[in-house]
Amino acid sequence: MRRSWTFSLLVIAMAASPLLAQRAPATGVRTIANVRELHDLIISPASDAVFDASSRQPLDAKGWTEARNQALLLAESGNLLMIGTRVRDNGNWMKMSRAMVDAAARAAVAAEKKDATALETATDALTVSCMECHRPYRDQGRQMGAPPK
Q1: pLDDT of residue 145
Q2: Mean pLDDT estimate for the chain
Q3: I need a surface site. Which of 25, 58, 69, 93 has the fewest CB within 10 A?
Q4: Count of H-run helices and E-run strands, the chain
Q5: Which residue ranges make up each domain of the chain?
Q6: Contact assessment for residue 100 and residue 133, using Cβ atoms and an 8 Å cutoff
Q7: What share of residues in the chain are helix, strand, coil (percent, to 5)?
């Protein structure tokens, strides 16, 4: 009987180990900045630069490169929102963070191609992702505007 019990535990442990490995946090990942700090330090400045490039097309290669770099910062900051203690929930928070990553990645590609029309389309999607996230998580249901103090 004892041998059967041990064997059963071994089988369960082996079956569960791939599932546990998928859920285990990445080794060495430790979040330092909170969501507001990410916004202040990375997200807001990068999004301002991307929106500016969309509304006032860069005049030279350096301007397009800067727009691309800021879009990449914005995309990667969306990934940072999906790590550790920053995650508010595994539903809408993750969906909206992914939408930000996707829109910013499209903006980076558009800037790399120096495609003003594609950049404008990407920033439209970025605006939607910002509004859809700010409304429930930052603004408690109010329209997007300045963050509450």
Answers
A1: 53
A2: 84
A3: 25
A4: 6, 0
A5: 32-138
A6: yes
A7: 75, 0, 25
Q: Is-contact 37 81, C-beta < 8 A?
A: no
Question: What are the tokens at 9?
Answer: 């535990």
Q: pLDDT tens digit string along 59-93?
A: 999 999 999 999 999 999 999 999 999 999 999 99
DSSP codes joined into one string, 35-70: HHHHIIIIIHHHHHHHHHHHHS--SSHHHHHHHHHH
117 vs 120: CA distance, rounded Å: 5
DSSP-based three-state secondary structure for 22: helix
pTM of the model: 0.76
Structure tokens belonging to residue 34: 């909170």
User: E-strand spans in the chain?
Assistant: none
Band (11; pLDDT cuts 50, 70, 90): very low
Which CATH number fits the domain 32-138, given the four candidates 3.40.50.720, 2.40.50.180, 2.40.50.140, 1.20.120.10? 1.20.120.10
